C-alpha cells in the first residue's frame, strides 16, 4: 500500500510572555547616577511590556542559534539595555537583526522540501527497520544536506557520505567515463560538414533515475525533515548522489535506454552514441554525453524528435537549440556560437578576468607574449599560500590551453614546476596572465575545409 509523502517539519519555539523565568533572561543593569559612577538607590523598574519584549528577543536569539545561525545573544542584550525612548518591539528587532537569517532559512527549507519530493517521485527509497536491515546485510551509510546558492536560487541536494569510508582507488566497478574533448570537436566538425545544428540539454536529477544492481544492499540515514524515528532507515532502490557507484549506475542505465532506441555506443569513447538513421545522413544523430549534460548534433527535425521521445523516460531541462547564425550556448564551460560556415568555440566570459583578480593584476601592464625566461636575482621557494595560488593558476591555464594553441607551451612549462615552484615560476605564471589580459577571448573555428584559430 502506498503511503503518503512525508511532510517536512520545522521546529518552533513558543515564548510564554507571562511565565518565562527571569533567570533565562540577561540581567538588566541598574541605573547609574552620573559620571562618578555612584549607584542609584533603586534598580531600573521593568514594565510588563519591557519584560515581554526582552523574552521575545531572547527566544528569537535561541531559535537562530539552534537552527545553525550566528549567536546573536550579545546583540540581544545590547539592544535590550539600550535607550528605549523609541519603542522597539519584536517585529522591529526581527527586521534589524535576523531578517536575512530567516529569509535564508525559508529558502533552504523550500529547497529541501523540493529535494525530498524528487526523491519520493523517483522511487529512490523504501522505509525499513534498522535492525532488520542489518540482519539482511544492508550497509547503512550516513547522509548530509548540501546547500548551494546558484544564480539567486537556493539548491538543496540530499547526499550519501559513501566516500567517508573509501580507501581504495583501484576498484574498477565504480568507473564511469566522460567524453574526450576530441569527441566534442568531432561532433562540431560533423555538424558543420552536414550543415546541421546542435542542441544542448541537461538531465534533471540524473542519478536518481538509475536503479541499483540487484545484489546491492544499501541503506541510508533518513534526513531529520522526514520525521522518522531512530529505528527507521531508507532502503535504497535507486541511486543517490554521493554513492560511489552512482555515476556508473547512471551511465549504465542511460546506455540501456539509448541502445533500446537504436543508438550505438562507440567502443573508442563510451560517452558517445550514434544513430545512423538507416544510412541517411540527415536522419542521423550524434550524442556526446558528459554525466548529465548532452550535446546532440543532427538536423533540427531529428533533434526535436529525439528530445520529445527521451522526455518520456527522463526529465530534461535547459533544452537549447543552435541553428541560426549568432546563436550561442554554454557547453562544458565553453561558449559555442553558430557562424555562417559552422561553429566557433570561445572561452567563457569571465574566466580570464577571474585569473586576473586572483593574482591582483587588475592594473598590471599587458605583454605581447605568454612566456620568456624571466630571471630574478633572489629566487626562493613559494610559501604554502603562494603554492596553492600557483597550482590554481596553472590548472586554469592548462584548461585554457586545450583550446588555445598559443598557451600550450607556456602552460606545459608552468605545470612542470607545480610540485615545488619557485618565485621565478610565479613570475612566469603572472606573465601568462598578463598576456591573457591583452587577449582574453580566443575562438576555434570549425568550418568545412578548415579548422583555424582566431584571436
Descriptive notes:
This protein is α+β, with helices and mostly antiparallel strands and 455 residues long. Among the domains are: 45-97, no CATH class; 351-439, no CATH class. 34% of the residues lie in helices and 19% in strands. The protein is built from 12 helices and 17 strands. It has helices spanning 48-66, 73-80, 90-97, 99-121, 130-135, 181-193, 246-260, 300-310, 351-358, 384-401, 408-415, 423-438; strands at residues 125-129, 139-141, 143-150, 153-160, 197-203, 218-220, 232-236, 264-265, 272-275, 285-290, 293-298, 316-322, 328-331, 334-338, 343-347, 443-447, 450-454. The strands form 4 sheets. Strands 8-9-10-11-5-12 form a 6-stranded antiparallel β-sheet, with helices on both faces. Strands 13-14-15-16-17 form a 5-stranded antiparallel β-sheet. Strand 16 (443-447) and strand 17 form a beta hairpin. Helix 9 runs antiparallel to helix 12 (423-438). The longest helix has 23 residues, at 99-121. The protein is globular, with a radius of gyration of 30 Å. The termini are far apart.
Cα separation of the termini:
64 Å
Q: Provide the helix percentage.
A: 25-40%
- What number is the mean pLDDT? 80
Please tally the helical runs, counting DSSP H or I stretches of 4 or more residues. 12
User: For the largest beta sheet, what order do the strands appear in spatially?
Assistant: 8-9-10-11-5-12
Unreliable sequence segments = 7-54, 83-87
The chain-level structural class is alpha+beta
> How many beta-strand elements?
17
Largest sheet: 6 strands, antiparallel
Q: In what range is the share of β-strand residues?
A: 15-25%
Outline type = globular
Amino acid at each position: 500500500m502506498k503511503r503518503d509523502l512525508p511532510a517536512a517539519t520545522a521546529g518552533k519555539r513558543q515564548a510564554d510572555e507571562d511565565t518565562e523565568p527571569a533567570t533565562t533572561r540577561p540581567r538588566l543593569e541598574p541605573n547609574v547616577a552620573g559620571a562618578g559612577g555612584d549607584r542609584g538607590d533603586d534598580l531600573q523598574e521593568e514594565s510588563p511590556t519591557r519584560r515581554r519584549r526582552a523574552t521575545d528577543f531572547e527566544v528569537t536569539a535561541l531559535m537562530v542559534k539552534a537552527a545553525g545561525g550566528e549567536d546573536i545573544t550579545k546583540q540581544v542584550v545590547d539592544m535590550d539595555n539600550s535607550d528605549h525612548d523609541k519603542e522597539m518591539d519584536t517585529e522591529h528587532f526581527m527586521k534589524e537583526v535576523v531578517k536575512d537569517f530567516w529569509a535564508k532559512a525559508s529558502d533552504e527549507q523550500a529547497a529541501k522540501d523540493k529535494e525530498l519530493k524528487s526523491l519520493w517521485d523517483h522511487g529512490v527509497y523504501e522505509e525499513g527497520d534498522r535492525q532488520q536491515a542489518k540482519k539482511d546485510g544492508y550497509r547503512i551509510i550516513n547522509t548530509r544536506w548540501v546547500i548551494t546558492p546558484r544564480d539567486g536560487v537556493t539548491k538543496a541536494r540530499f547526499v550519501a557520505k559513501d566516500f567517508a569510508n573509501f580507501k581504495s582507488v583501484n576498484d574498477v566497478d565504480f568507473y564511469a567515463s566522460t567524453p574526450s574533448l576530441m569527441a566534442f570537436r568531432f561532433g562540431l566538425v560533423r555538424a558543420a560538414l552536414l550543415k546541421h545544428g546542435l542542441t544542448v540539454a541537461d538531465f534533471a536529477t540524473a542519478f536518481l533515475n538509475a536503479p541499483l544492481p540487484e545484489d546491492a544492499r544499501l541503506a541510508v540515514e533518513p534526513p531529520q525533515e522526514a520525521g522518522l524515528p531512530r529505528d527507521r532507515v531508507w532502503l535504497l532502490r535507486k541511486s543517490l548522489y554521493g554513492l560511489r557507484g552512482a555515476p556508473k549506475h547512471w551511465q549504465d542505465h542511460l546506455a540501456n535506454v539509448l541502445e533500446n532506441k537504436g543508438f550505438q555506443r562507440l567502443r573508442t569513447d563510451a560517452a558517445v552514441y550514434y544513430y545512423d538513421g538507416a544510412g541517411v545522413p540527415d536522419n542521423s544523430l550524434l550524442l556526446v554525453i558528459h554525466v548529465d549534460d548532452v550535446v546532440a548534433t543532427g538536423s533540427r527535425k531529428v533533434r526535436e524528435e529525439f528530445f520529445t521521445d527521451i522526455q518520456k523516460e527522463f526529465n530534461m531541462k535547459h533544452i537549447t537549440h543552435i541553428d541560426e547564425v549568432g546563436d550561442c550556448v554554454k557547453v562544458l564551460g565553453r561558449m559555442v556560437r553558430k557562424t555562417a560556415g559552422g561553429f566557433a568555440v570561445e572561452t567563457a566570459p569571465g574566466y580570464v578576468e577571474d585569473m586576473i583578480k586572483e593574482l591582483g593584476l587588475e592594473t598590471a601592464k599587458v605583454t605581447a607574449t605568454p612566456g620568456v625566461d624571466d630571471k630574478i636575482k633572489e629566487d626562493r621557494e613559494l610559501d604554502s599560500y603562494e603554492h596553492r595560488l600557483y597550482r590554481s593558476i596553472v590548472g586554469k591555464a592548462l584548461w585554457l590551453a586545450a583550446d588555445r594553441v598559443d598557451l600550450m607551451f607556456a602552460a606545459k612549462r608552468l605545470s612542470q614546476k607545480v610540485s615545488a615552484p619557485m618565485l621565478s615560476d610565479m613570475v612566469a605564471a603572472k606573465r601568462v596572465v598578463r598576456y591573457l589580459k591583452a587577449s582574453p577571448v580566443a575562438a576555434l573555428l570549425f568550418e568545412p575545409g578548415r579548422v583555424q584559430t582566431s584571436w
